[in-house]
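Project standup — Tuesday

K.O.: blocked on the structure for the chain from last sprint. Re-posting the sequence here as requested.
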Amino acid sequence: MNVKVKNITNLEKFFGVIDQCEEKVELVTENGDKFNLKSKLSQYVALTIFGGVIPSVELITHSPSDSGKIIRYMMSNN
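H.V.: unblocked you, prediction finished:
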């Protein structure tokens, strides 16, 4: 499932939600590259790319429950 996230300012909390996901969660770049955000290295790369704020990105989740976790986070914290 594709999930669009916007205006993530607390990356630590966002990555905490990603860490709770059961399956792979991929960040898709504008060039179509995919980063598995379950990887701490990929999270670090995302921090470097976005400089502490994610304005808008597309995520691919591989579990409906993981999609729900991310959507609930977006609705309650952003």
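K.O.: great, moving the ticket to review. The chain has one domain: 2-56. Residues 2-56 form one domain.
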